[in-house]
Amino acid sequence: xxxxxxxxxxxxxxxxxxxxxxxxxxxxxxxxxxxxxxxxxxxxxxxxxxxxxxxxxxxxxxxxxxxxxxxxxxxxxxxxxxxxxxxxxxxxxxxxxxxxxxxxxxxxxxxxxxxxxxxxxxxxxxxxxxxxxxxxxxxxxxxxxxxxxxxxxxxxxxxxxxxxxxxxxxxxxxxxxxxxxxxxxxxxxxxxxxxxxxxxxxxxxxxxxxxxxxxxxxxxxxxxxxxxxxxxxxxxxxxxxxxxxxxxxxxxxxxxxxxxxxxxxxxxxxxxxxxxxxxxxxxxxxxxxxxxxxxxxxxxxxxxxxxxxxxxxxxxxxxxxxxxxxxxxxxxxxxxxxxxxxxxxxxxxxxxxxxxxxxxxxxxxxxxxxxxxxxxxxxxxxxxxxxxxxxxxxxxxxxxxxxxxxxxxxxxxxxxxxxxxxxxxxxx
Length: 428
What we know:
Nuclear Transport Factor 2, Chain: A; 7 helices
């Protein structure tokens, strides 16, 4: 609908709504006792109302704060593509960034914060190129202005909560939680909640995390300090703690470490395309055979992580597995990761890997009809269903440090309680 027609409909709607209470008053007093209603003069008045013209906003239908951690070798163009920036804005910023050394040579491990609309329109980009230098790309009509300034960021604890409607990222976006914090939330509770199978509509989360500000504007998020996730009515809590010996991690309210011996999944967010079964029709071989693993559908190149600390026992190409990595964990456990497009950095036979380390990337090598990860969990060499096998538990916090932890955690668990028992979605 064009703008004049829209304004005409708005004017008619406004007059109709404005007339309703007026007519109500006439009806109420028109029937009052002893009121003379004969020979009343009726006059029709038509008045033109000034309706403010509607203007499209820069923010579009929706806009979100996106946060991206820079990878080694990543270019500004690739970064903007990952952030969902439309092509015309990407080209405009690349043109403006020609004179910015900081944007021309991005630093791996640093984060970029961007405000992007649902249509891909870039509104603002902030990049902390080092601890004291902030690079800002401001939108000026259809171009961008690049500024660099020395700063001293201020840390503030931020509180957010939300309810799952369809997905974790959808809920965290709605609560204005940075993607980095959402990923940490899923990572922390991955030993208790399988975010592929266990997520339910109505599940609830609360987070307290660090955010760094400059002149009232957020420039990056920091560490997730405390979190709570309620799944199917059961609540799980986590608080970050660093003991006097320098060991750090996330612990439950009772001091149990949330770093499980094994993660429930080698990929934080992905759809299970094929489960563990004694009989499955193979899409490539076109025959029925057992499937002694779980397939996770994901795009080519998606990172695959080790589910536990391990030593690499095999890396290379092997039959229908294609590119395969096999990890030996504490006896009698081992895991296998097949159909990889490429192997992770430093992954070779005999190398030690830590839980959560990227050991490869999703592909379609071997007998695969499309990109996915084939994952196997083995006990004494025999494949077991990784979705149902009972996994070893974690170790508790050293008893010497439990009083320190209790005192440290108390104010943060109180904040989680506040978010749980109120209707607050956010509190800065």
